[in-house]
Specification:
By secondary structure, this protein is an alpha+beta fold. It is built from one helix and eight strands.
Length: 167
């Protein structure tokens, strides 16, 4: 009747179609899931505000960051990439976003935290646009699923103001 090659081909086809259907259902479940994360970030201290030798402004911040992102985790979530960004406007650009700190959250039990940090990455701007500038702290996250499309969201914190003079 049918050779072993035909039987093996049919078995692999059924397995691939089943796996594809399971992945599509997992992706659909993620689209129906509505997370409700909470977060708070606060600038404790501006530890450094100076004009760099290159002529660029440089800012050093100390922050308190607390977040509960447990609701972003589902059975299809592999990990969540989280970062805190400073967002501000300049005459040239309507939005500037500078990443200050980041973390990978590998599991739900690590997604509820409160930490005291200094900015991990340099907060610089070309020229002297930061004097007296208002900026928002934004907590952004990207959910990386085991199967399906990645999605991202953010929470924008209240406005902060940089000093009018260098320290």
């Amino acid at each position: 009747m049918h050779s072993y090659g035909n039987r093996m081909g049919n078995l692999l086809t059924v397995a691939a179609l089943s796996l594809g259907a399971i992945c599509a259902m997992a992706s659909l479940c993620d689209h129906l899931h509505v997370p409700s994360p909470s977060a708070h970030a606060q600038v404790l201290k501006i530890s450094r505000f100076r004009k760099h030798r290159s002529g660029d402004d440089e800012v050093g911040l100390e922050l308190n960051v607390s977040a509960n992102l447990q609701s972003t985790f589902t059975w299809n979530t592999k990990q969540v990439f989280l970062f805190v960004a400073a967002e501000y406007e300049t005459p040239k650009n309507s939005i500037n976003q500078i990443s200050l700190w980041d973390r990978i959250i590998p599991a739900k039990e690590y997604a509820d935290f409160s930490i005291h940090i200094k900015n991990k990455y340099r907060f610089t701007d070309q020229g002297n646009n930061l004097q007296g500038k208002e900026f928002n702290l934004t907590l952004c996250w990207q959910v990386m699923p085991k199967s399906g499309r990645m999605f991202a969201d953010k929470i924008v914190m209240t406005r902060y103001r940089l000093p009018d003079k260098y320290q």
